[in-house]
Amino acid sequence: MRKFALLLMVFSFFYAPSLFAHDKKILIINSYHRGFQWSDDVLVGMEEVFYNHPEITTNILYMDSKRISSEEYYAKLRELYKLQLKNHQYDLIVAVDKFAYDFIVKYYHELFTTEPVLFTGLEQFEIEDIQKEGLEDRVYGILERRAIPETIPMIAKMMPGLKKLYIINDASANGDDSEPFIRQAMSEHNSEFEIEYIRSATLEELEERFSKPNKEEAVFFIRFYNDKYGNLYKNSQIASMINKSALPIFITDTLFIGKGAFGGKLVPVKSVGRITGDMVIDVLDKKLEPLHVKTLIEYQYQFDVQKIQQFGLYPNASVKAFELVNAPLTFFDKHRKFVDAVFLISPFLLFLVLGLIHNIYMRIRSEKELKAIELQKNKHQQFIIQQSKLAEIGEIFSSIAHQWKNPLVEIATIAQEHVYGSDDQGDEQSNEYVNAIMVQVRYMTDTINDFQKFIMPSTQRTVFDVSEAIETMMKIISHNIKYNYIDVSIDVSHATNLMVSGYKNEFMQTLLNIVNNAKDQIKEARETKQIKRGVIFIQIYNHSKKVIIDIKDNGGGIPIDKLPNIFDAYYTTKESGHGIGLYMSKLIIEDKMGGKIRVSNTAEGACFSITLGNIS
């Protein structure tokens, strides 16, 4: 008997607290229906936290507000909940998203007594709403902040040629909460490109609108569950529209990543649930004060590999750290059953090793190919940026040229009127003066026209004469060359076909870079009295169906240790140089025109050699 009493005392000491501990009861009111992925993922995240807290029990009520949202429905729902919650006491009420939160605040005093309320998933919170109901001493919450202001500039950086951005946000109450953030972001970027904001449409209309590819357009998808007629779409229907889009679609949360969306800076929805679960524990343990409202700033950069390949867009330039999803299956994934069998049957272990080696080899090759594609993409973007800069300069010069041409016309008109309007209008000397003035006016006008054509970037590949392009370029800079005491000679005596395909103005910019570098080197050699007069010799000839242009000078050449890096970006031999001229020259000749550019030293100076393909 004594042994039994002793055992009872020990049992009571160790186990009685857990047997008689107060269970924590939580009521979760979900704004939506079971199967609505966003709220389902939030609940999954919360359950992961509650798994380690067996003292917590939950009861979930589904409001189904996506499908029914009338005031009459909410009034009926209030009466139903009053019956369901009668004689039930909870330690905490959790409102999942806006509809549940607004419902609880409005009918709190009819449904509850003193229970604290924790909301999650809202985008906006106004303290005045709960002060009106006298609830400021029992409300906590988590605000979900979508990365709307950050995503638009990210899209623009990934797509330098972006001219139009569509923003999709449905006409629901949730869409109303997102609207101020969208409008603010639009106001900051609508001067850079056109923005079309879509709130009223159908899924079929969106699918039709985005069915044609356009490299200058993109879509920023916030949400689209309800169409303009109030119909509710399933996630599978929305994912189908996104996947069919011929334009890249950027998103704000993880619901559609891997289901057709390109990617973006995403709110991890399950993390919203886990963070909510952690706050539930803190509220129950009374570690937080009322009105503790936390803004969720946890994001994940995620991009779909297949969409990267489809649209040729790469996040590397705009995002440093990101995760790739939907990657092609590896050898191990494709042959998992086979690999498992190999592990079980040791004689076949060799096959596994060979498969793994093959997998490593393919992965290394794929990474090299991806890097090569990315490098080519970056070079193309730099070429576009260079063309954009030339276009801006060309527009500025066009304005200047327009202002210059009008006075030149006036000068010519005044001279003619002055001479021919006088009594001795037939005077031979006066005619000579007018002719001299007209010659100078025509020369200045031709110079302005030539330079205006030269500075504008080429919009597309054309067939042009190399010799004519060089003559035009030298004509523009002839005075600068002359005043620096440099003699220029051009030899085309061994050329039979000088027609090539490419970008004429960019080709002339390349030659201008080389000739200007030669001029600077010659000027330095003259100042140090190494030479008396500068010489630039340009020889153009054909060889093996190629056009070859050799540009030689007597400026002393390039230091031997600097020759291997002379075409590298931002590498310069000048104190005030930027290191971009020769890099862009190589990019234009080799990447855009399919030619070759090389440099070497002669006995007197440098020799740049350009090789281009002939057009028969």
TrEMBL record:
EC number(s) on file: 2.7.13.3
Leader peptide range in chain numbering: 1-21
Enzyme class of the recorded protein, top EC level: transferase
Keywords: ATP-binding, Kinase, Membrane, Nucleotide-binding, Signal, Transferase, Transmembrane, Transmembrane helix, Two-component regulatory system
SUPFAM superfamilies xref list: ATPase domain of HSP90 chaperone/DNA topoisomerase II/histidine kinase (SSF55874), Homodimeric domain of signal transducing histidine kinase (SSF47384)
GO molecular function terms noted in the UniProt entry: kinase activity
Pfam families, alphabetized: ABC_sub_bind, HATPase_c
The keyword Transferase belongs to this UniProt entry's keyword annotation: yes
PROSITE patterns linked to this entry: HIS_KIN (PS50109)
Catalytic activity: ATP + protein L-histidine = ADP + protein N-phospho-L-histidine
Protein's UniProt keywords contain Nucleotide-binding: yes
Residue span(s) of domain Histidine kinase: 399-616
PANTHER family, alphabetized: C4-DICARBOXYLATE TRANSPORT SENSOR PROTEIN DCTB, SENSOR HISTIDINE KINASE
Identification of the protein by name: histidine kinase
